[in-house]
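To: structure desk
From: M.T.
Subject: fold request, one chain
Message: Could you run this one when you get a chance? Sequence is below, nothing fancy, just the single chain.
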Amino acid sequence: MAALSERKTDTEGNRRPWEVRKQETLSHLRRASPEVAAVKAADAVHNARCTAQDIRCQGLDVWRRFNRGPELQLDYYRRIVRVVRERLQNHPIVDELARAVDELAQATEEACAGGSRTLQKKNPT
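Reply: Done. Structure tokens follow.
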């Protein structure tokens, strides 16, 4: 499980790029045990559902707390779904994760359509 924990800084203490960290996480997940894949899936289910609920209550400004906007975050969640599906196939957590990601996408779309607070893009770090 430690392999899936992101190393956010390099050996010199500089913040590592978000895209690199996420790609490394997905690469580790592809080689991880089924148990580790299930834990990552459960964590992603929880995070996606909490974020969706926050968007419903607080609007699109919720996305400001992330290093990337909704499009890239949702893409990352969808890639997790694909990798977890490869690793766990028909395990129930796979469908639960897919539903949670769909709920997050729907909450974001509804907030956009409903004129929720405007999303202010955060500068990439």
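Reply (cont.): The radius of gyration is 15 Å. Let me know if you need anything else for the meeting.
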